[in-house]
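writing this on my phone so excuse typos. first protein, seq and then structure
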Amino acid sequence: MVHRKELNPERSPRDRFGQVVRALRDERGWTQDELAERLGCSGSHVSAIETGRRATTPQFARKLDRVFGTGDRLERQSQSARQTALLEGFSAFLREEGQAAEVRLYEVGIIPGLLQTPEYAAALAESAVKRGEINTDQAQERVALVATRQAALARTPAPLILAVLDEGCVRRPIGGPGVMDAQLERLLEFAEQPNTSLQIAPFSMGDLRPFNLPVTVLTLVNRSLMAYAESAHRGHLERESQFVVPILTSYHQLQVHALHQAATVAMIQQLRKGTP
Protein backbone atom coordinates (compact mmCIF):
# COMPACT_ATOMS: atom_id res chain seq x y z
CA MET A 1 0.00 0.00 0.00
CA VAL A 2 1.35 3.42 -0.95
CA HIS A 3 2.20 5.54 2.06
CA ARG A 4 0.01 8.63 2.36
CA LYS A 5 1.32 11.63 4.22
CA GLU A 6 -0.92 12.63 7.09
CA LEU A 7 -2.26 16.16 6.63
CA ASN A 8 -2.63 18.72 9.41
CA PRO A 9 -5.23 21.30 8.30
CA GLU A 10 -4.62 23.33 11.46
CA ARG A 11 -1.01 24.04 10.48
CA SER A 12 -1.73 26.62 7.78
CA PRO A 13 -4.31 27.76 5.18
CA ARG A 14 -2.17 26.07 2.52
CA ASP A 15 -2.47 22.72 4.33
CA ARG A 16 -6.24 23.18 4.72
CA PHE A 17 -6.52 23.78 0.99
CA GLY A 18 -4.51 20.65 0.26
CA GLN A 19 -6.72 18.56 2.52
CA VAL A 20 -9.84 19.73 0.65
CA VAL A 21 -8.29 18.84 -2.69
CA ARG A 22 -7.35 15.37 -1.43
CA ALA A 23 -10.83 14.80 -0.01
CA LEU A 24 -12.49 15.80 -3.29
CA ARG A 25 -10.15 13.52 -5.24
CA ASP A 26 -10.76 10.60 -2.85
CA GLU A 27 -14.53 11.05 -3.18
CA ARG A 28 -14.19 10.43 -6.91
CA GLY A 29 -11.81 7.52 -6.51
CA TRP A 30 -9.08 9.19 -8.56
CA THR A 31 -5.36 8.78 -8.09
CA GLN A 32 -3.12 11.83 -8.11
CA ASP A 33 -1.99 10.92 -11.61
CA GLU A 34 -5.59 10.61 -12.82
CA LEU A 35 -6.43 14.05 -11.40
CA ALA A 36 -3.25 15.44 -12.91
CA GLU A 37 -4.24 14.12 -16.34
CA ARG A 38 -7.56 15.94 -16.12
CA LEU A 39 -5.78 19.13 -15.03
CA GLY A 40 -3.01 18.95 -17.60
CA CYS A 41 -0.19 18.86 -15.02
CA SER A 42 2.03 16.26 -13.34
CA GLY A 43 1.13 13.96 -10.49
CA SER A 44 3.99 15.44 -8.47
CA HIS A 45 2.39 18.87 -8.81
CA VAL A 46 -0.90 17.55 -7.44
CA SER A 47 1.01 15.89 -4.59
CA ALA A 48 2.78 19.16 -3.73
CA ILE A 49 -0.55 21.00 -3.62
CA GLU A 50 -2.21 18.35 -1.46
CA THR A 51 0.61 18.24 1.08
CA GLY A 52 1.00 22.01 1.30
CA ARG A 53 4.51 22.02 -0.17
CA ARG A 54 3.42 24.30 -3.00
CA ALA A 55 0.98 27.20 -2.99
CA THR A 56 -1.74 27.10 -5.59
CA THR A 57 -2.33 29.81 -8.18
CA PRO A 58 -5.71 31.35 -9.11
CA GLN A 59 -5.52 29.65 -12.51
CA PHE A 60 -4.84 26.23 -11.00
CA ALA A 61 -7.63 26.65 -8.44
CA ARG A 62 -10.07 27.49 -11.23
CA LYS A 63 -9.01 24.31 -13.07
CA LEU A 64 -9.67 22.32 -9.90
CA ASP A 65 -13.13 23.86 -9.56
CA ARG A 66 -13.90 22.99 -13.19
CA VAL A 67 -12.69 19.38 -12.85
CA PHE A 68 -14.42 18.80 -9.50
CA GLY A 69 -17.55 20.78 -10.43
CA THR A 70 -17.28 22.90 -7.28
CA GLY A 71 -18.24 26.30 -8.72
CA ASP A 72 -15.69 28.80 -7.41
CA ARG A 73 -15.22 27.19 -3.99
CA LEU A 74 -11.56 26.27 -4.42
CA GLU A 75 -10.67 29.53 -6.12
CA ARG A 76 -12.07 31.43 -3.13
CA GLN A 77 -10.34 29.19 -0.62
CA SER A 78 -7.06 29.46 -2.51
CA GLN A 79 -6.97 33.19 -1.76
CA SER A 80 -6.43 32.53 1.95
CA ALA A 81 -4.03 29.68 1.15
CA ARG A 82 -1.88 32.09 -0.85
CA GLN A 83 -2.04 34.78 1.82
CA THR A 84 0.57 33.07 3.96
CA ALA A 85 2.38 34.97 6.71
CA LEU A 86 5.71 33.97 5.16
CA LEU A 87 7.51 36.22 2.73
CA GLU A 88 8.34 34.91 -0.71
CA GLY A 89 11.62 33.01 -0.51
CA PHE A 90 11.42 32.46 3.25
CA SER A 91 10.28 28.83 3.11
CA ALA A 92 13.38 27.83 1.15
CA PHE A 93 15.54 29.66 3.65
CA LEU A 94 13.92 27.87 6.60
CA ARG A 95 14.79 24.46 5.18
CA GLU A 96 18.45 25.45 4.98
CA GLU A 97 18.50 27.23 8.35
CA GLY A 98 17.25 24.12 10.13
CA GLN A 99 20.29 22.17 8.91
CA ALA A 100 22.98 24.86 9.03
CA ALA A 101 26.22 24.37 10.95
CA GLU A 102 26.60 28.13 11.51
CA VAL A 103 24.04 30.94 11.52
CA ARG A 104 25.13 34.57 11.38
CA LEU A 105 22.29 37.04 11.62
CA TYR A 106 21.80 40.78 11.78
CA GLU A 107 18.46 42.31 12.69
CA VAL A 108 17.05 45.83 12.66
CA GLY A 109 14.22 47.11 14.85
CA ILE A 110 12.96 43.88 16.41
CA ILE A 111 14.43 40.86 18.17
CA PRO A 112 15.02 38.14 15.52
CA GLY A 113 12.74 35.12 15.51
CA LEU A 114 15.41 32.69 16.70
CA LEU A 115 15.75 34.71 19.93
CA GLN A 116 12.12 35.70 20.55
CA THR A 117 10.04 34.60 23.51
CA PRO A 118 6.52 33.31 22.65
CA GLU A 119 4.99 36.39 24.27
CA TYR A 120 7.16 38.77 22.26
CA ALA A 121 6.33 36.91 19.04
CA ALA A 122 2.62 37.02 19.89
CA ALA A 123 2.74 40.77 20.58
CA LEU A 124 4.31 41.41 17.17
CA ALA A 125 1.76 39.20 15.42
CA GLU A 126 -1.19 40.82 17.23
CA SER A 127 0.03 44.26 16.22
CA ALA A 128 0.24 43.16 12.59
CA VAL A 129 -3.37 41.92 12.79
CA LYS A 130 -4.54 45.26 14.20
CA ARG A 131 -2.81 47.08 11.34
CA GLY A 132 -4.61 44.83 8.85
CA GLU A 133 -1.36 43.37 7.47
CA ILE A 134 -2.28 39.77 8.27
CA ASN A 135 -5.30 37.85 9.54
CA THR A 136 -5.67 35.83 12.74
CA ASP A 137 -4.67 32.55 11.06
CA GLN A 138 -1.53 34.14 9.71
CA ALA A 139 -0.71 35.56 13.13
CA GLN A 140 -0.93 32.08 14.63
CA GLU A 141 1.27 30.79 11.83
CA ARG A 142 3.93 33.37 12.65
CA VAL A 143 3.97 32.54 16.35
CA ALA A 144 4.08 28.79 15.69
CA LEU A 145 6.91 29.31 13.21
CA VAL A 146 9.07 30.97 15.88
CA ALA A 147 8.82 27.87 18.06
CA THR A 148 9.44 25.55 15.11
CA ARG A 149 12.59 27.42 14.05
CA GLN A 150 13.99 27.46 17.58
CA ALA A 151 13.29 23.75 18.02
CA ALA A 152 15.05 22.96 14.73
CA LEU A 153 18.24 24.56 16.03
CA ALA A 154 18.08 22.85 19.44
CA ARG A 155 19.89 19.77 18.23
CA THR A 156 23.14 17.87 18.76
CA PRO A 157 25.63 18.94 17.68
CA ALA A 158 24.33 22.45 18.22
CA PRO A 159 24.91 24.98 15.44
CA LEU A 160 27.01 28.07 16.06
CA ILE A 161 24.69 31.09 16.22
CA LEU A 162 26.19 34.56 15.95
CA ALA A 163 23.72 37.43 16.41
CA VAL A 164 24.31 41.13 15.94
CA LEU A 165 21.31 43.30 16.84
CA ASP A 166 20.85 46.93 15.98
CA GLU A 167 20.49 48.91 19.23
CA GLY A 168 16.90 49.67 18.31
CA CYS A 169 16.05 45.98 18.77
CA VAL A 170 16.61 46.15 22.52
CA ARG A 171 15.32 49.71 23.05
CA ARG A 172 12.06 49.39 21.12
CA PRO A 173 9.31 48.42 23.60
CA ILE A 174 7.15 45.53 22.39
CA GLY A 175 4.17 44.08 24.24
CA GLY A 176 4.48 46.04 27.47
CA PRO A 177 7.09 46.10 30.27
CA GLY A 178 6.61 42.50 31.35
CA VAL A 179 6.95 41.09 27.84
CA MET A 180 9.98 43.23 27.13
CA ASP A 181 11.72 42.38 30.39
CA ALA A 182 11.28 38.67 29.76
CA GLN A 183 12.60 39.14 26.24
CA LEU A 184 15.72 40.92 27.48
CA GLU A 185 16.24 38.13 29.98
CA ARG A 186 15.99 35.65 27.11
CA LEU A 187 18.79 37.52 25.32
CA LEU A 188 21.00 37.25 28.39
CA GLU A 189 20.33 33.51 28.56
CA PHE A 190 21.17 33.21 24.87
CA ALA A 191 24.49 34.99 25.41
CA GLU A 192 25.47 32.45 28.09
CA GLN A 193 25.25 29.45 25.77
CA PRO A 194 28.53 27.87 24.63
CA ASN A 195 27.52 27.90 20.95
CA THR A 196 26.34 31.53 20.72
CA SER A 197 27.61 35.06 20.40
CA LEU A 198 25.53 38.20 21.02
CA GLN A 199 26.53 41.73 20.03
CA ILE A 200 24.71 45.04 19.74
CA ALA A 201 25.45 47.43 16.92
CA PRO A 202 25.09 50.77 18.75
CA PHE A 203 23.51 53.85 17.20
CA SER A 204 26.93 55.50 17.49
CA MET A 205 28.24 53.25 14.70
CA GLY A 206 26.54 55.59 12.25
CA ASP A 207 27.62 54.94 8.68
CA LEU A 208 30.00 52.19 9.77
CA ARG A 209 27.00 49.88 9.83
CA PRO A 210 27.23 47.95 6.52
CA PHE A 211 23.61 46.75 6.38
CA ASN A 212 20.36 48.71 6.32
CA LEU A 213 18.14 45.62 6.21
CA PRO A 214 18.14 42.30 8.11
CA VAL A 215 20.53 39.72 6.71
CA THR A 216 21.47 36.14 7.58
CA VAL A 217 24.47 34.14 6.38
CA LEU A 218 24.34 30.35 6.69
CA THR A 219 27.27 27.96 6.65
CA LEU A 220 26.07 24.48 5.78
CA VAL A 221 27.59 21.23 6.98
CA ASN A 222 29.55 20.93 3.73
CA ARG A 223 30.93 24.47 4.40
CA SER A 224 29.06 26.02 1.49
CA LEU A 225 27.57 29.46 2.11
CA MET A 226 24.25 31.09 1.43
CA ALA A 227 22.73 34.41 2.43
CA TYR A 228 19.16 35.52 3.03
CA ALA A 229 17.98 39.12 3.01
CA GLU A 230 14.52 40.60 2.90
CA SER A 231 12.61 43.79 2.32
CA ALA A 232 9.13 44.56 3.59
CA HIS A 233 7.51 42.42 0.89
CA ARG A 234 9.85 39.63 -0.14
CA GLY A 235 12.94 37.67 0.77
CA HIS A 236 15.79 36.42 -1.37
CA LEU A 237 17.99 33.39 -0.76
CA GLU A 238 21.37 33.79 -2.45
CA ARG A 239 23.44 30.67 -3.12
CA GLU A 240 26.12 31.99 -5.49
CA SER A 241 29.40 32.36 -3.60
CA GLN A 242 30.45 35.38 -5.64
CA PHE A 243 27.56 37.27 -4.05
CA VAL A 244 27.57 35.62 -0.62
CA VAL A 245 31.26 36.10 0.22
CA PRO A 246 31.08 39.94 0.10
CA ILE A 247 28.08 39.78 2.44
CA LEU A 248 30.05 37.59 4.84
CA THR A 249 32.97 40.04 4.67
CA SER A 250 30.63 42.92 5.53
CA TYR A 251 29.25 40.86 8.42
CA HIS A 252 32.74 40.43 9.81
CA GLN A 253 33.24 44.20 9.58
CA LEU A 254 29.96 44.68 11.42
CA GLN A 255 31.17 42.44 14.24
CA VAL A 256 34.42 44.38 14.56
CA HIS A 257 32.61 47.69 15.12
CA ALA A 258 29.72 46.32 17.23
CA LEU A 259 29.90 46.14 21.03
CA HIS A 260 31.67 43.02 22.25
CA GLN A 261 29.53 40.55 24.19
CA ALA A 262 30.45 41.78 27.67
CA ALA A 263 29.45 45.35 26.77
CA THR A 264 26.31 44.04 25.09
CA VAL A 265 25.29 42.14 28.22
CA ALA A 266 25.99 45.23 30.34
CA MET A 267 23.72 47.36 28.11
CA ILE A 268 20.88 44.83 28.32
CA GLN A 269 21.22 44.59 32.08
CA GLN A 270 21.02 48.39 32.37
CA LEU A 271 17.91 48.42 30.22
CA ARG A 272 16.28 45.84 32.49
CA LYS A 273 17.00 48.14 35.46
CA GLY A 274 15.44 51.03 33.63
CA THR A 275 18.66 53.02 33.32
CA PRO A 276 19.88 54.55 30.05
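second protein below, same order as before
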Amino acid sequence: MRHPLDTLDWPISTERLLLRRAAPDDLDATWAFRRLPETFEWITAATVTYDDYRERFLREEQLIDMLLVELDGRVIGDLMLKVQDAWAQEEVADQAKGVQGELGWTIDPTYGGKGYATEAVRALIDISFTRLGLRRLHAECFYDNEASWRLMERVGMRREQHTVKDSLHRTKGWLDGLSYALLAEEWPAHE
Protein backbone atom coordinates (compact mmCIF):
# COMPACT_ATOMS: atom_id res chain seq x y z
CA MET A 1 0.00 0.00 0.00
CA ARG A 2 1.29 3.45 -0.91
CA HIS A 3 2.05 5.94 1.80
CA PRO A 4 -0.07 9.10 1.50
CA LEU A 5 3.12 11.17 1.10
CA ASP A 6 3.80 9.18 -2.08
CA THR A 7 0.73 10.77 -3.67
CA LEU A 8 2.25 14.27 -3.66
CA ASP A 9 4.67 15.93 -6.06
CA TRP A 10 7.98 16.55 -4.30
CA PRO A 11 9.83 18.73 -3.50
CA ILE A 12 7.53 21.37 -2.01
CA SER A 13 8.84 24.90 -1.50
CA THR A 14 8.03 27.33 1.27
CA GLU A 15 9.18 30.93 1.43
CA ARG A 16 12.75 29.96 2.40
CA LEU A 17 12.84 26.18 2.57
CA LEU A 18 12.46 23.08 0.46
CA LEU A 19 10.69 20.01 1.82
CA ARG A 20 11.39 16.67 0.19
CA ARG A 21 11.13 12.95 0.83
CA ALA A 22 14.04 11.38 2.68
CA ALA A 23 16.23 8.88 0.85
CA PRO A 24 18.99 6.48 1.95
CA ASP A 25 21.58 9.00 0.69
CA ASP A 26 20.45 11.43 3.41
CA LEU A 27 22.00 9.33 6.16
CA ASP A 28 25.06 11.52 6.72
CA ALA A 29 23.16 14.81 6.49
CA THR A 30 20.73 13.77 9.24
CA TRP A 31 23.39 12.13 11.41
CA ALA A 32 25.25 15.47 11.46
CA PHE A 33 22.54 17.13 13.59
CA ARG A 34 20.82 14.15 15.22
CA ARG A 35 24.03 13.22 17.05
CA LEU A 36 24.42 16.68 18.63
CA PRO A 37 23.78 16.75 22.41
CA GLU A 38 21.00 19.38 22.12
CA THR A 39 19.14 17.18 19.64
CA PHE A 40 20.13 13.79 20.98
CA GLU A 41 18.62 14.64 24.36
CA TRP A 42 15.04 14.76 23.02
CA ILE A 43 14.76 12.44 20.02
CA THR A 44 12.73 9.29 20.54
CA ALA A 45 15.42 6.81 19.60
CA ALA A 46 18.97 7.96 20.15
CA THR A 47 21.69 5.95 18.52
CA VAL A 48 25.15 6.41 19.93
CA THR A 49 27.25 5.15 17.02
CA TYR A 50 27.12 5.94 13.33
CA ASP A 51 26.65 2.25 12.52
CA ASP A 52 23.64 1.99 14.85
CA TYR A 53 22.20 5.15 13.34
CA ARG A 54 22.70 3.85 9.81
CA GLU A 55 20.88 0.61 10.64
CA ARG A 56 17.95 2.49 12.14
CA PHE A 57 17.81 5.21 9.46
CA LEU A 58 17.76 2.75 6.58
CA ARG A 59 14.74 0.83 7.86
CA GLU A 60 11.83 1.31 5.49
CA GLU A 61 9.43 2.33 8.24
CA GLN A 62 11.83 5.12 9.25
CA LEU A 63 12.24 6.55 5.75
CA ILE A 64 8.62 6.21 4.67
CA ASP A 65 7.35 8.81 7.19
CA MET A 66 10.30 11.21 6.92
CA LEU A 67 10.66 14.48 5.05
CA LEU A 68 13.81 16.56 4.93
CA VAL A 69 14.03 20.30 5.40
CA GLU A 70 16.57 22.04 3.17
CA LEU A 71 17.86 25.59 3.25
CA ASP A 72 19.88 26.63 0.19
CA GLY A 73 20.59 22.97 -0.64
CA ARG A 74 21.69 22.02 2.88
CA VAL A 75 19.67 19.64 5.07
CA ILE A 76 18.85 21.50 8.29
CA GLY A 77 16.23 19.19 9.75
CA ASP A 78 13.70 16.47 9.27
CA LEU A 79 9.97 16.15 9.73
CA MET A 80 7.82 13.10 10.37
CA LEU A 81 4.22 12.47 9.40
CA LYS A 82 2.76 9.14 10.48
CA VAL A 83 -0.70 8.78 9.01
CA GLN A 84 -2.90 6.85 11.43
CA ASP A 85 -6.36 5.50 11.94
CA ALA A 86 -8.54 7.23 14.51
CA TRP A 87 -10.22 5.22 17.24
CA ALA A 88 -13.75 4.32 16.23
CA GLN A 89 -16.57 2.01 17.12
CA GLU A 90 -16.69 -1.15 15.06
CA GLU A 91 -19.65 -0.12 12.90
CA VAL A 92 -17.89 3.02 11.62
CA ALA A 93 -14.25 1.89 11.80
CA ASP A 94 -13.83 2.04 8.03
CA GLN A 95 -14.50 5.81 8.17
CA ALA A 96 -11.65 6.29 10.66
CA LYS A 97 -8.89 4.76 8.52
CA GLY A 98 -5.99 7.06 7.64
CA VAL A 99 -7.70 10.25 8.79
CA GLN A 100 -5.21 11.63 11.29
CA GLY A 101 -1.48 12.05 11.63
CA GLU A 102 1.26 12.26 14.21
CA LEU A 103 3.81 15.00 13.63
CA GLY A 104 7.45 15.07 14.68
CA TRP A 105 10.50 17.17 13.91
CA THR A 106 14.21 17.48 14.51
CA ILE A 107 15.97 20.69 13.51
CA ASP A 108 19.71 21.32 13.52
CA PRO A 109 20.23 23.59 16.56
CA THR A 110 22.68 25.65 14.49
CA TYR A 111 19.63 26.97 12.63
CA GLY A 112 17.48 27.59 15.70
CA GLY A 113 15.88 30.93 16.45
CA LYS A 114 15.41 31.91 12.81
CA GLY A 115 11.87 30.62 12.28
CA TYR A 116 12.86 27.68 10.08
CA ALA A 117 11.23 25.06 12.30
CA THR A 118 8.01 27.09 12.46
CA GLU A 119 7.99 27.54 8.68
CA ALA A 120 8.64 23.85 8.03
CA VAL A 121 6.04 22.57 10.51
CA ARG A 122 3.42 25.03 9.24
CA ALA A 123 4.06 23.73 5.73
CA LEU A 124 3.67 20.13 6.88
CA ILE A 125 0.41 20.98 8.65
CA ASP A 126 -0.87 22.68 5.52
CA ILE A 127 0.14 19.70 3.36
CA SER A 128 -1.57 17.33 5.81
CA PHE A 129 -4.86 19.19 5.78
CA THR A 130 -5.11 20.68 2.28
CA ARG A 131 -3.36 18.08 0.14
CA LEU A 132 -3.75 14.84 2.09
CA GLY A 133 -7.18 15.60 3.52
CA LEU A 134 -6.36 14.57 7.08
CA ARG A 135 -8.85 15.70 9.71
CA ARG A 136 -6.63 15.82 12.81
CA LEU A 137 -2.94 16.13 13.67
CA HIS A 138 -1.25 15.54 17.02
CA ALA A 139 2.23 15.73 18.51
CA GLU A 140 3.76 14.88 21.87
CA CYS A 141 6.86 15.85 23.79
CA PHE A 142 8.37 15.91 27.25
CA TYR A 143 7.29 18.95 29.26
CA ASP A 144 10.99 19.73 29.75
CA ASN A 145 11.44 20.07 25.96
CA GLU A 146 10.22 23.65 25.97
CA ALA A 147 11.44 24.41 22.45
CA SER A 148 9.21 21.66 21.07
CA TRP A 149 6.01 22.60 22.88
CA ARG A 150 6.55 26.29 22.19
CA LEU A 151 6.80 25.38 18.50
CA MET A 152 3.51 23.49 18.74
CA GLU A 153 1.89 26.59 20.20
CA ARG A 154 3.42 28.90 17.56
CA VAL A 155 1.92 26.83 14.75
CA GLY A 156 -1.51 26.95 16.37
CA MET A 157 -1.73 23.56 18.01
CA ARG A 158 -3.84 23.25 21.16
CA ARG A 159 -2.51 21.71 24.35
CA GLU A 160 -4.84 18.80 25.06
CA GLN A 161 -3.05 16.98 27.81
CA HIS A 162 -0.42 17.52 30.49
CA THR A 163 0.41 14.22 32.11
CA VAL A 164 2.39 13.89 35.33
CA LYS A 165 5.56 11.79 35.24
CA ASP A 166 4.19 9.37 32.66
CA SER A 167 7.05 9.68 30.13
CA LEU A 168 10.36 7.95 30.72
CA HIS A 169 13.43 9.86 29.53
CA ARG A 170 16.62 7.89 28.92
CA THR A 171 18.69 9.97 31.39
CA LYS A 172 16.27 12.20 33.31
CA GLY A 173 13.88 9.53 34.58
CA TRP A 174 10.12 10.00 34.70
CA LEU A 175 9.04 13.37 33.29
CA ASP A 176 5.76 15.09 32.61
CA GLY A 177 4.44 14.76 29.07
CA LEU A 178 2.48 17.08 26.81
CA SER A 179 0.08 16.34 23.96
CA TYR A 180 -1.00 18.89 21.38
CA ALA A 181 -3.46 18.62 18.51
CA LEU A 182 -5.08 20.57 15.70
CA LEU A 183 -8.18 19.88 13.62
CA ALA A 184 -8.42 20.70 9.92
CA GLU A 185 -11.35 22.99 10.66
CA GLU A 186 -9.12 24.99 13.03
CA TRP A 187 -6.40 25.50 10.42
CA PRO A 188 -6.75 28.88 8.73
CA ALA A 189 -6.02 29.20 5.03
CA HIS A 190 -2.25 29.60 4.98
CA GLU A 191 -1.16 33.08 3.90
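The chain has one domain: 4-186. thats all i got for now
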